[in-house]
Amino acid sequence: MNNYPTLRQLQYLCAIDKYMNFRIAAEECFITQPTLSAAIKEMEQLLGNQVLDRTNRKKIIFTPFGQEVVQTAKAILPQLDQLTANAQRLSEPLSGLIRLGIIPTIAPYLLPDILPILQNKFPKMAFKITEDLSASLVDKIQEGDLDLILMAFPYDTEKLETFSLLKENFYCACPPDYFPNKKSLKTDDLKNHHLLLLEDGHCLRDHALESCKLQLPNDQKLLSATSLQTILQMVAQGYGITLLPKMVVDTKILPQNIKIIPLKNPTPTREIGFAWRKGSPQVSNIQAISKEIKAHLK
Known about the structure:
The chain is built from ten helices and eleven strands. The chain is of the alpha/beta class. Helix 1 (7-19) crosses helix 2. The chain is elongated, with a radius of gyration of 24 Å.
């Protein structure tokens, strides 16, 4: 009779491969580091081969056989997740865990509005929220670490299914003394001003520039920050202007020394929606969630 490693052992090994750190891998698996080490050693005994090269105490090194085990585990575990999700979906629809990823320029502005709706409408569902940049969330959903992403488009989602929830306008946010007597602006009016945007990696930066058809000259001073709140404080202090989507403007919690001016037609917009893996076992739950949120936002 073959001695197979357990699913837990394979999960632990994948965690080590993902984080390349025993302490972090143990924390992510909700076990102690000695328990993690013991499980890996037990798996090696079952398989009759080492998966880790322990000659280097300062660095995690997988043996060639260990790399093979990791790749096999990465192929097996998502299939088992799908099998379990299918079983739960068939036995009790609209239930179970939904791992939801949200980008930072949506999470604090839309999540407080839609999360109570989800919890009320789908009481048997549990939602685990992950906030991260679009590129990281897309990687996680393709690797099976997430079920659903709430993100902004356009974005490269060729391998994913998508569902549009809404389109929202961009507004110009500026200090009170900018653009006197103007009730609306053309995108050309934004040129030759210090434009404050999020750092590279935030899709809001690209969407704002693309939708407003702004081509930044090489000599234009462009300041960037890691969060919208930081940018808003910089605008309030007179460092320049920025572009805000409607959901941020609607929060009514902007700094006092900021003026919001709409942009003229054709008004720049971004699209908000869900994305998920094609063939996801959660597709019926995802479709129910998508339709409910879209109806609520209307």
